């Protein structure tokens, strides 16, 4: 959406009573007068800062003038509005339209939790399958020749610790059980 269309959409919101006060409008006009490239000439800036005219009239004339000048001028107005009245800039109706998500776009926040919506029963089932496979692998492995309590104590060691550490622990437990 072009900035001119956005400004046309936001015009009623901006010109409604007590949205922008006189000081903020003056700051915006001065910024548009001093920014490079110069958006408002000195004569235009004086016209839009004239305290004899009502604020509503000056602001309406300014917005219409910027729309006639083109998209670049409207974009600079939005930049000046963001700098001088950030809260009002964030509350603009056109900004709210821009913030609404596209239904075809992937929502990364929602996607982040997509895998975690299974619940505790799913977790317990997966954990049980993994523990069962580890126990089956451990008991059917012909390398492990461990007796008695050592085998029962370190029954789930393939899950937690590596093969070399497991063998050292089992030898230590066998020596302890002999003594």
TrEMBL record:
Residue ranges annotated for the CARD domain, each copy included: 38-96
Main location: endoplasmic reticulum
Gene3D superfamilies according to UniProt: Death Domain, Fas
Residues passing through the membrane, by range: 120-138
Keywords: Disulfide bond, Endoplasmic reticulum, Membrane, Mitochondrion, Transmembrane, Transmembrane helix
Subcellular location: Endoplasmic reticulum membrane; Mitochondrion membrane
Example of a GO biological process term: regulation of apoptotic process
A cellular-component GO term for this protein: endoplasmic reticulum membrane
Nuclease keyword on record: no
Topological category with respect to the lipid bilayer: Single-pass membrane protein
Pfam families, sorted: CARD
Subunit structure, as described in the record: Associates with BCL10 by CARD-CARD interaction.
Name assigned to this protein: Caspase recruitment domain-containing protein 19
